Amino acid sequence: MKTRITELLGIEYPIIQGGMAWVAEAHLAAAVSNAGGLGLLGGASAPAEVVRDMIRQCRELTDKPFGVNVMLMSPYAKDVAQVVVEEKVGVVTTGAGNPGAYMSMWKEAGIKVIPVVASVAHAKLMERAGADAVVAEGCESGGHIGEATTMTLVPAVADAVGIPVIAAGGIADGRGMAAAFMLGAEAVQVGTRFVASSEAVVHEAYKDRIVKAKDIDSAVTGRSHGHPVRCLRNQMTREYIRLEAEGKGFEELEYLTLGSLRKAVQEGDVTNGTVMAGQIASIIHEVKSCREIVEGMSADCERIMRDRAERYTR
Fold first, then answer.
1. What are the C-alpha distances in Å from 148 to residues 49, 75, 141, 169, 195?
2. What letter does residue 194 receive in the DSSP assignment?
Protein backbone atom coordinates (compact mmCIF):
# COMPACT_ATOMS: atom_id res chain seq x y z
CA MET A 1 0.00 0.00 0.00
CA LYS A 2 1.94 2.99 -1.29
CA THR A 3 0.97 6.49 -0.18
CA ARG A 4 2.86 9.70 0.41
CA ILE A 5 3.14 8.64 4.05
CA THR A 6 4.75 5.26 3.34
CA GLU A 7 7.22 7.01 1.03
CA LEU A 8 7.89 9.81 3.53
CA LEU A 9 8.53 7.49 6.46
CA GLY A 10 10.02 4.51 4.63
CA ILE A 11 7.43 2.04 5.94
CA GLU A 12 5.59 -0.82 4.27
CA TYR A 13 2.07 -0.18 5.53
CA PRO A 14 0.41 3.21 6.16
CA ILE A 15 -0.28 2.40 9.82
CA ILE A 16 1.16 4.39 12.71
CA GLN A 17 0.92 3.31 16.34
CA GLY A 18 -0.23 6.06 18.70
CA GLY A 19 2.28 7.50 21.17
CA MET A 20 0.23 6.59 24.25
CA ALA A 21 1.55 7.54 27.68
CA TRP A 22 2.68 4.54 29.80
CA VAL A 23 1.83 2.22 26.88
CA ALA A 24 3.98 3.26 23.91
CA GLU A 25 7.33 1.90 25.08
CA ALA A 26 10.15 0.17 23.22
CA HIS A 27 8.69 -3.34 22.95
CA LEU A 28 5.42 -2.16 21.42
CA ALA A 29 7.02 0.42 19.12
CA ALA A 30 9.57 -2.08 17.85
CA ALA A 31 6.92 -4.74 17.26
CA VAL A 32 4.81 -2.36 15.16
CA SER A 33 7.84 -1.22 13.18
CA ASN A 34 8.99 -4.80 12.63
CA ALA A 35 5.50 -5.57 11.31
CA GLY A 36 5.88 -2.87 8.65
CA GLY A 37 4.10 0.06 10.32
CA LEU A 38 5.60 2.93 12.27
CA GLY A 39 6.03 2.40 15.99
CA LEU A 40 6.11 5.41 18.29
CA LEU A 41 7.63 5.88 21.72
CA GLY A 42 5.45 7.96 24.03
CA GLY A 43 7.49 10.75 25.60
CA ALA A 44 4.54 11.83 27.78
CA SER A 45 5.93 13.58 30.88
CA ALA A 46 9.05 11.44 31.12
CA PRO A 47 12.44 13.10 31.73
CA ALA A 48 14.73 13.40 28.73
CA GLU A 49 17.12 10.67 29.84
CA VAL A 50 14.25 8.22 30.22
CA VAL A 51 13.22 8.97 26.64
CA ARG A 52 16.84 8.54 25.54
CA ASP A 53 16.93 5.10 27.15
CA MET A 54 13.66 4.14 25.39
CA ILE A 55 15.10 5.20 22.03
CA ARG A 56 18.24 3.14 22.55
CA GLN A 57 16.26 0.13 23.73
CA CYS A 58 14.01 0.37 20.68
CA ARG A 59 17.05 0.43 18.39
CA GLU A 60 18.17 -2.86 19.93
CA LEU A 61 14.79 -4.40 19.05
CA THR A 62 14.33 -3.12 15.49
CA ASP A 63 16.30 -1.81 12.55
CA LYS A 64 13.11 -0.37 11.03
CA PRO A 65 11.99 3.29 11.21
CA PHE A 66 10.32 4.40 14.45
CA GLY A 67 9.51 7.73 16.02
CA VAL A 68 8.94 9.60 19.28
CA ASN A 69 5.81 11.41 20.38
CA VAL A 70 6.80 14.63 22.16
CA MET A 71 4.16 15.93 24.56
CA LEU A 72 4.66 19.68 24.38
CA MET A 73 3.00 20.33 27.75
CA SER A 74 5.59 18.18 29.50
CA PRO A 75 7.97 20.08 31.80
CA TYR A 76 10.75 18.19 30.02
CA ALA A 77 9.60 18.99 26.48
CA LYS A 78 12.58 21.23 25.66
CA ASP A 79 15.08 18.59 26.78
CA VAL A 80 13.22 15.78 25.01
CA ALA A 81 13.17 17.87 21.83
CA GLN A 82 16.97 18.04 22.02
CA VAL A 83 17.36 14.34 22.79
CA VAL A 84 15.52 13.25 19.62
CA VAL A 85 18.06 15.29 17.64
CA GLU A 86 21.04 13.87 19.52
CA GLU A 87 19.74 10.32 19.09
CA LYS A 88 19.03 10.89 15.38
CA VAL A 89 15.38 9.88 15.58
CA GLY A 90 13.80 9.95 12.13
CA VAL A 91 10.22 10.92 12.99
CA VAL A 92 8.60 13.08 15.67
CA THR A 93 4.91 13.45 16.34
CA THR A 94 3.73 16.14 18.72
CA GLY A 95 0.71 16.68 20.92
CA ALA A 96 -0.78 19.24 23.30
CA GLY A 97 0.64 22.41 21.82
CA ASN A 98 2.56 24.13 19.05
CA PRO A 99 5.99 22.66 18.18
CA GLY A 100 7.12 25.89 16.52
CA ALA A 101 9.91 26.46 19.04
CA TYR A 102 11.61 23.23 17.97
CA MET A 103 10.65 23.04 14.30
CA SER A 104 13.83 24.61 12.88
CA MET A 105 16.08 22.43 15.02
CA TRP A 106 14.22 19.28 14.02
CA LYS A 107 14.09 20.15 10.33
CA GLU A 108 17.81 20.97 10.25
CA ALA A 109 18.42 17.52 11.75
CA GLY A 110 16.38 15.91 8.96
CA ILE A 111 13.57 14.82 11.28
CA LYS A 112 10.10 14.34 9.80
CA VAL A 113 7.69 16.35 11.97
CA ILE A 114 4.03 15.28 12.23
CA PRO A 115 1.87 17.25 14.70
CA VAL A 116 -1.44 15.90 15.98
CA VAL A 117 -4.22 18.42 15.27
CA ALA A 118 -7.87 18.69 16.27
CA SER A 119 -8.93 21.54 13.98
CA VAL A 120 -8.44 22.93 10.48
CA ALA A 121 -6.87 26.10 11.86
CA HIS A 122 -4.24 24.10 13.73
CA ALA A 123 -3.52 21.99 10.65
CA LYS A 124 -2.97 25.10 8.50
CA LEU A 125 -0.70 26.60 11.14
CA MET A 126 1.39 23.44 11.24
CA GLU A 127 1.68 23.33 7.45
CA ARG A 128 2.95 26.93 7.43
CA ALA A 129 5.42 26.06 10.16
CA GLY A 130 6.94 23.33 7.98
CA ALA A 131 5.27 20.12 9.19
CA ASP A 132 5.71 17.16 6.85
CA ALA A 133 2.21 15.78 7.60
CA VAL A 134 -0.49 16.07 10.24
CA VAL A 135 -2.51 13.59 12.27
CA ALA A 136 -6.17 14.66 12.26
CA GLU A 137 -7.47 13.08 15.45
CA GLY A 138 -11.21 12.87 16.05
CA CYS A 139 -12.90 12.81 19.43
CA GLU A 140 -13.62 9.08 19.16
CA SER A 141 -10.04 8.43 20.23
CA GLY A 142 -8.90 7.51 23.72
CA GLY A 143 -7.12 9.93 26.03
CA HIS A 144 -7.15 13.70 25.56
CA ILE A 145 -9.60 14.67 22.82
CA GLY A 146 -10.95 17.62 20.84
CA GLU A 147 -14.53 18.25 19.77
CA ALA A 148 -14.71 17.26 16.09
CA THR A 149 -15.37 13.67 15.01
CA THR A 150 -12.99 11.80 12.73
CA MET A 151 -15.71 11.68 10.06
CA THR A 152 -15.89 15.48 9.93
CA LEU A 153 -12.32 16.46 10.81
CA VAL A 154 -10.35 14.33 8.35
CA PRO A 155 -12.01 15.55 5.11
CA ALA A 156 -11.96 19.14 6.34
CA VAL A 157 -8.24 18.98 7.07
CA ALA A 158 -7.52 17.09 3.84
CA ASP A 159 -9.26 19.87 1.90
CA ALA A 160 -7.41 22.59 3.78
CA VAL A 161 -3.77 21.49 3.54
CA GLY A 162 -1.46 20.17 0.85
CA ILE A 163 0.64 17.95 3.11
CA PRO A 164 -0.45 14.34 3.78
CA VAL A 165 -3.13 13.72 6.40
CA ILE A 166 -3.14 10.79 8.81
CA ALA A 167 -6.53 9.89 10.29
CA ALA A 168 -6.90 8.94 13.96
CA GLY A 169 -9.81 8.18 16.25
CA GLY A 170 -12.19 5.23 15.93
CA ILE A 171 -9.96 3.07 13.70
CA ALA A 172 -9.17 -0.53 14.64
CA ASP A 173 -9.69 -2.65 11.54
CA GLY A 174 -9.62 -2.64 7.75
CA ARG A 175 -13.09 -1.09 7.52
CA GLY A 176 -12.03 1.95 9.50
CA MET A 177 -8.81 2.19 7.53
CA ALA A 178 -10.65 2.09 4.19
CA ALA A 179 -13.10 4.71 5.44
CA ALA A 180 -10.20 6.96 6.45
CA PHE A 181 -8.75 6.73 2.93
CA MET A 182 -12.12 7.60 1.45
CA LEU A 183 -12.18 10.71 3.65
CA GLY A 184 -8.84 11.86 2.25
CA ALA A 185 -6.28 10.36 4.61
CA GLU A 186 -3.11 8.67 3.40
CA ALA A 187 -2.44 6.69 6.58
CA VAL A 188 -4.06 5.90 9.89
CA GLN A 189 -2.88 6.25 13.46
CA VAL A 190 -4.11 3.47 15.72
CA GLY A 191 -4.02 3.43 19.51
CA THR A 192 -6.56 1.28 21.36
CA ARG A 193 -6.16 -1.71 19.00
CA PHE A 194 -2.42 -1.82 19.81
CA VAL A 195 -3.05 -1.64 23.56
CA ALA A 196 -4.79 -5.01 23.15
CA SER A 197 -1.75 -6.56 21.47
CA SER A 198 0.44 -9.36 22.77
CA GLU A 199 3.56 -7.16 22.67
CA ALA A 200 2.07 -4.27 24.64
CA VAL A 201 3.67 -4.17 28.10
CA VAL A 202 0.31 -3.48 29.70
CA HIS A 203 -1.36 -5.30 32.60
CA GLU A 204 -3.60 -8.11 31.41
CA ALA A 205 -6.53 -6.62 33.31
CA TYR A 206 -6.28 -3.48 31.15
CA LYS A 207 -6.25 -5.51 27.94
CA ASP A 208 -9.12 -7.63 29.21
CA ARG A 209 -11.17 -4.52 29.98
CA ILE A 210 -10.77 -3.37 26.37
CA VAL A 211 -11.62 -6.78 24.94
CA LYS A 212 -14.79 -6.96 27.05
CA ALA A 213 -15.87 -3.34 26.41
CA LYS A 214 -19.38 -2.66 25.14
CA ASP A 215 -20.40 0.17 22.84
CA ILE A 216 -21.84 2.13 25.79
CA ASP A 217 -18.73 1.80 27.98
CA SER A 218 -16.97 4.96 26.79
CA ALA A 219 -16.97 8.03 29.05
CA VAL A 220 -15.52 11.53 28.79
CA THR A 221 -14.32 13.34 31.90
CA GLY A 222 -12.93 16.86 32.23
CA ARG A 223 -15.26 18.76 29.94
CA SER A 224 -16.08 21.25 32.71
CA HIS A 225 -12.51 22.56 32.80
CA GLY A 226 -11.67 22.27 29.11
CA HIS A 227 -9.48 19.16 29.25
CA PRO A 228 -11.73 16.29 28.12
CA VAL A 229 -10.36 12.77 28.38
CA ARG A 230 -11.99 9.65 26.94
CA CYS A 231 -11.70 6.42 28.89
CA LEU A 232 -13.76 3.37 29.82
CA ARG A 233 -16.41 3.71 32.50
CA ASN A 234 -15.52 2.55 36.00
CA GLN A 235 -15.78 3.70 39.59
CA MET A 236 -13.27 6.48 39.03
CA THR A 237 -15.14 7.96 36.04
CA ARG A 238 -18.43 7.83 37.90
CA GLU A 239 -16.95 9.70 40.84
CA TYR A 240 -15.24 12.23 38.55
CA ILE A 241 -18.46 12.93 36.65
CA ARG A 242 -20.38 13.26 39.92
CA LEU A 243 -17.89 15.83 41.22
CA GLU A 244 -17.99 17.70 37.90
CA ALA A 245 -21.78 17.91 38.16
CA GLU A 246 -21.37 19.39 41.65
CA GLY A 247 -19.12 22.10 40.21
CA LYS A 248 -15.87 21.01 41.84
CA GLY A 249 -12.75 22.86 40.75
CA PHE A 250 -9.99 21.72 38.43
CA GLU A 251 -7.47 21.02 41.18
CA GLU A 252 -9.79 18.75 43.15
CA LEU A 253 -10.75 16.85 40.02
CA GLU A 254 -7.14 16.44 38.93
CA TYR A 255 -6.19 15.13 42.37
CA LEU A 256 -8.73 12.35 41.87
CA THR A 257 -6.88 11.14 38.75
CA LEU A 258 -3.32 11.71 39.94
CA GLY A 259 -1.28 8.67 38.89
CA SER A 260 -4.43 6.86 37.81
CA LEU A 261 -3.25 5.99 34.28
CA ARG A 262 -0.10 4.33 35.60
CA LYS A 263 -2.27 2.54 38.17
CA ALA A 264 -4.38 1.02 35.39
CA VAL A 265 -1.60 0.27 32.90
CA GLN A 266 1.00 -1.14 35.27
CA GLU A 267 -0.96 -2.34 38.30
CA GLY A 268 -4.11 -3.46 36.52
CA ASP A 269 -6.45 -1.39 38.67
CA VAL A 270 -9.26 -0.97 36.16
CA THR A 271 -11.70 0.06 38.88
CA ASN A 272 -9.98 3.15 40.27
CA GLY A 273 -7.45 3.75 37.51
CA THR A 274 -7.91 5.63 34.23
CA VAL A 275 -8.50 3.09 31.47
CA MET A 276 -7.85 5.29 28.45
CA ALA A 277 -9.40 3.77 25.33
CA GLY A 278 -11.28 4.96 22.28
CA GLN A 279 -14.90 4.31 21.42
CA ILE A 280 -13.69 1.63 19.02
CA ALA A 281 -12.84 -0.66 21.96
CA SER A 282 -16.22 -2.34 21.58
CA ILE A 283 -15.22 -4.03 18.29
CA ILE A 284 -11.93 -5.38 19.67
CA HIS A 285 -12.65 -8.91 20.83
CA GLU A 286 -9.25 -10.52 21.21
CA VAL A 287 -5.59 -9.81 21.84
CA LYS A 288 -3.50 -10.18 18.69
CA SER A 289 0.14 -9.73 17.78
CA CYS A 290 1.18 -6.45 16.22
CA ARG A 291 2.00 -8.25 12.99
CA GLU A 292 -1.48 -9.77 12.88
CA ILE A 293 -2.99 -6.34 13.48
CA VAL A 294 -0.90 -4.49 10.88
CA GLU A 295 -1.07 -7.11 8.15
CA GLY A 296 -4.73 -7.93 8.85
CA MET A 297 -5.86 -4.31 8.75
CA SER A 298 -3.95 -3.66 5.55
CA ALA A 299 -5.20 -6.79 3.77
CA ASP A 300 -8.80 -6.12 4.79
CA CYS A 301 -8.55 -2.49 3.75
CA GLU A 302 -7.23 -3.40 0.31
CA ARG A 303 -9.91 -6.07 -0.15
CA ILE A 304 -12.71 -3.71 0.88
CA MET A 305 -11.51 -0.92 -1.41
CA ARG A 306 -11.06 -3.34 -4.32
CA ASP A 307 -14.49 -4.92 -3.80
CA ARG A 308 -16.19 -1.54 -3.61
CA ALA A 309 -14.41 -0.34 -6.74
CA GLU A 310 -15.46 -3.44 -8.66
CA ARG A 311 -19.04 -3.20 -7.41
CA TYR A 312 -19.50 0.40 -8.49
CA THR A 313 -17.84 0.02 -11.88
CA ARG A 314 -20.08 -2.83 -13.05
1. 35, 28, 11, 10, 23
2. H
